[in-house]
Amino acid sequence: MSRTPEKTTVSIIKADVGSLAGHHTVPKPLLDIGEKRLKEAQKNGLINSYYVFHAGDDLELLMVHTRGESNPDIHKLAWDTFKEAAKKASSLKLYGAGQDLLKQAFSGNIRGMGPGVAEMEIEERRSDPIVVFAADKTEPGAYNYPMFRIFADPANTAGLIIDPNMSGGFKFEVLDTVENKKIVLKCPEEMYELIALIGTPGRNVVSRVRRARDDLICATTSTTRLALIAGRYVGKDDPVSIVRAQHGLPALGEILVPFMHSYFVEGWMRGSHWGPLMPVGLKDSRCTLFDGPPRIVALGFQVGNGKIASDDDGVPLISDLFDDPAFDMARREAIEYAAVLRRMGEFEPARLSAEVMEYTTLPQVLEKLRARFKPA
Ligand code: F6R
Ligand code: MG
Ligand code: MG
């Protein structure tokens, strides 16, 4: 009898639980709590591997285990870690302590409670290269453009033309975050319809990508909308994503080449501006300039035997992919675009459209003027 191969799950769960000197970075004591908690969980056998890092002011918990997606114990581990880090942040009077923890009691799944979640359960291939992206000062739709480039654009991904394993195309699951409905569109056949939808990244978000010929899971992104959970503006959703690479899927380089140039995303200062996304190494993962520019880090690693491939001391082998001069041009462009936009101040299109500003504090400012309007 053939054994069902055990599946491995990659989970990345993140939250802004407090930052140093404003909203720009996660200080070491909070990272240490992440490290301590996940190390404990690894020792107890709940998870097999982990890596704690930060993207700007977001504490990021990368965990590899065999418990599947939406597992209550894994989600509780993340929730308890964030709670403890938030408590530490409060005691240090750090800024925005506990900001993304929008609910009180944990009830089995961290989704809808504030933190962002991307999870992917995989049947391990002979070798499984993975890229995890984490961005700050932007929103889940920020991945729409690179996901399109990676999985649908033959000018980006040579494999779509050259590798027969990919020529059947890819299926995109798109979530309408306002109506909370999803649709699956297949490329290349429905490419134009796909762009028609995901060209509105503030609303429609690529949530999963599968290879069309066998439904192999290739990519997943977090899709939270904090404002819709909280009923008010509490910061952007600062998204995470997991992408699988190689051997009949886009190569690592095809996954990274969309970041050769900076492109524009919603978020930045007060979650209210268009800003250029800047790919950075972990050492530069701090949102300083006008609380930005929105930044993205990318980590590359191998998943095998239910864990992240590690060195002899058990330290996971992680490649900090954007810590590379190859992305200097994108970084330079990001600063140049930032200067162009900031020159416009609070005039559209530097500031987001009025419709999107509904989810910020701007309506409170305009409320004062309402009674002063007279018929024209
Ligand atoms: C955006 C963000 C920051 C803050 C800004 C104002 O996601 O976190 O840009 O919106 O620093 O913060 P408060 O209102 O806390 O002073
Ligand atoms: Mg924040
Ligand atoms: Mg953040």
List keywords for this structure.
376 residues, alpha+beta, ten-stranded mixed beta sheet, four-stranded antiparallel beta sheet, 26% strand, binds fructose -6-phosphate, binds magnesium ion
Architecture overview:
The chain is of the alpha+beta class and 376 residues long. The protein has one domain. Helix content is 24%, strand content 26%. It contains 10 helices and 16 strands. Strands 5, 6, 7, 8, 9, 10, 13, 14, 15 and 16 form a 10-stranded mixed beta sheet that branches. Helix 1 (28-43) runs antiparallel to helix 2. The longest helix has 20 residues, at 72-91. The N and C termini lie far apart (81 Å). The model has no long low-confidence stretch (mean pLDDT 95). One magnesium ion binds at residues 16, 56-58, 136, 238.
Concise synopsis of the structure shown:
This protein has ten helices and 16 strands.
Mean pLDDT across all residues, rounded? Answer: 95
Q: Give the proportion of residues in helices.
A: 10-25%
Poorly predicted tracts of residues: none
Query: Beta fraction of the residues?
Result: 25-35%
The biggest beta sheet is recorded as: 10 strands, mixed
The structure class reads alpha+beta
What count of domains describes the coordinates? 1
Radius of gyration: 20 Å
Q: State the total count of DSSP E strands.
A: 16
Distance between the termini: 81 Å
Helical run tally: 10
| Distinct ligands | fructose -6-phosphate, magnesium ion
Shape label: globular
Order of helices and strands: EHEEHEEHHEEHEEHEHEEEEEEHHH
